[in-house]
Design goal:
Number of helices: 5
Order of helices and strands: EEHEHHEHEHE
Strand content: 5-15%
Number of domains: 1
Distance between the termini: 16 Å
Oligomer: single chain
Number of strands: 6
Structural class: alpha/beta
CATH class: Alpha Beta
CATH topology: Rossmann fold
CATH architecture: 3-Layer(aba) Sandwich
Strand order of the largest sheet: 3-2-4-5
Radius of gyration: 15 Å
Amino acid sequence: MIHRLKVYVAGPIDGSGRHIPNLRRALDAGSKLMSDGFDPFIPHLNLIWSLVHEGCATGARWQEWDDNWLRCCDGLYRLSGVSPGSDHEVALAQSLGLPVFFEADADGHERLQWWRVETVRLLPRNGAIFVVGG
């Protein structure tokens, strides 16, 4: 079994009616995280789900779904931009004791990498293979 740290990508989805550019930013961040050896969770992909199955969930239900997935993650990466939902997710992650990294911080990505290396180094092995690199 390979264990990779799961990182929740939080950021604007429908801010300023810019769904597709926000989705692209989240996918770009997720792709970078994946190539760096993380397993990103990108809730922005719910946009596609809700386009295919319009009205399948309310905004409150999507937030509940996001919160449940966030509880399964090891950390959170916050994209810049105005997003009340993402601010809620940052607060939830902090209340759960999860590390939060901010795209807007000059050293945010470096701190994320350091966290990955240190966390993998310190975790018990229990027969699992822990991946440090991409």
